[in-house]
Specification:
60s Ribosomal Protein L30, Chain: A; 113 residues; globular; 26% helix; 7-stranded mixed sheet
Length: 113
């Protein structure tokens, strides 16, 4: 069974199937990469809770940065947020994001209830 949560015309914020939650890409508010990353991870945490999951159940994360020079700043926030011993498979690359003010977007897949 496929369950879609917060579904709109274009996308669902969460799609659950066979014990896995697929979250749509999340961005955050703020001026700096650190601020946007913290806000983005807060949004991810809320969606994970809604899906019956949590940060320690993340299977994979894909991170897009508008500028790879921000890698260390983003990682400082990420490393503090990911529970020790529960680092997911992860990829990080550079891409032009949907709006010029955006500096980071994170896409997460996690095990769920």
């Amino acid at each position: 069974m496929i369950e879609r949560l917060e579904t709109g015309r274009r996308m669902s914020k969460i799609v659950k199937h066979n014990g896995v939650a697929y979250l749509c890409g999340q961005v955050g508010a703020g001026d700096s990469v650190a601020e946007q990353t913290r806000d983005c991870l807060g949004r991810i945490e809320a969606l994970l809770a809604q899906a019956g999951s949590s940060p320690d159940r993340i299977l994979q994360a894909v991170i897009w940065l508008a500028d790879m020079q921000d890698f260390d700043e983003m990682n400082a926030v990420w490393d503090a947020w990911v529970p020790e011993g529960h680092a997911p498979a992860r990829a990080c690359g550079e891409a032009r994001l949907a709006r010029p003010a955006l500096k980071v977007e994170i896409i997460v897949t996690a095990a769920c209830d």
